[in-house]
Amino acid sequence: MSKQFFRRLADAGWVPHAGQRAYLDSQARFRVLACGRRWGKTDASAADMARRVFLSRTSRQIAIAPTLAQARIVFERMKWMLTAVGIAYTAVQTPHPTIRVHEGGKKSGAVVHVFDARSGHEAHNLRGDGANHILLDEAAFVPEELITEVAMPMLAASDGRMTLISTPRGRNFFYRLFRMGERGESGFWSRRSPSSENPRVSKEYLALQREILSERSFRTEYEAEFLDSATTVFAYEALERAMSARRVDVGEVVVGVDWARCEDFTAAVALRGVQRRCEVIDAARWAGIGWAAIVRRVAEFASRHGAHRIICDATGVGDPVTEQLRSECPGAGV
């Protein structure tokens, strides 16, 4: 049946390239695809969802994107795919783009397949919905809470699948999920798919973009590489190693504090160990509150972990605020 589906698409003029085929062949429950611009993620996503309609008796699928306009692109391509493979449907644009497939292909029949296109900014309206397949388009650009607190619970009762597909955006939560796929954890699968995989994207065009864009932008946008932010002090891998190191049950606890500048965060990290080995036991950050409140939060953080020493950044606003912290923590060396 799957061969018949792709044969009909080929007859209509669409054939997946090798990278799209690798994505479509994955049977993982959670698929994370990092792809370059013009790789063809909209076509691959629409084909994947149309195939579920073609092969399954019933389905409930949702495509979520940062904006409704972006989600509507998948919706329109989904309509084309369904028409190409001979599936009758009805489509409406309000209150949001929805495709319904009726039993027997007649409007009088029961609805057996539903596809919705939704905006990630409407997360509160998605709570309570269920689905057996959710596509998060441009997943690196939606709030992490949309995935963990809204989308994931929607799959609980159906044991459904989730697809996260996006151009990278630094090493944020999308990168963490991608890494889970690289390690084959918890049903995750991942793949990096540069724009060059699409035979319709010419080498000449990519060469031009390489000349126009900065090296960093080109590697992100067209080679689908995950790069640390230009302002990042520590590489993601270094932080990951620190947070996943073996437990250390000996040694003193030391807290490091980086005071905020302007609208930045004040951050604190607690470490326990000895000179040769230590463990990160906690980290916290605060913003949007006054300095007195931040000092109290840092003092409470240090007290909770029994810190023997607190080391503070002395630049910027550091000195006067550090003096306030000394008065709040008389038992610790600040």
Care to describe what's here?
The chain is an alpha/beta fold and about 325 residues long. The protein folds into two domains: about 1-220, Rossmann fold (3-Layer(aba) Sandwich); about 250-330, 2-Layer Sandwich (Nucleotidyltransferase, domain 5). It is built from twelve helices and twelve strands. It has helices at about 1-10, 20-25, 40-55, 70-85, 125, 145-155, 175-180, 205-210, 215-220, 235-245, 290-305, 320-330, and strands spanning about 30-35, 60-65, 90, 100, 110-120, 135, 160-165, 190-195, 250-260, 265-275, 280-285, 310. Strands 3-4-5-2-6-7-1-8 form an eight-stranded mixed β-sheet, with helices on both faces. It has a four-stranded mixed β-sheet with strand order 11-10-9-12, with helices on one face. Strand 9 (about 250-260) and strand 10 form a beta hairpin. It is elongated and about 75 Å long.
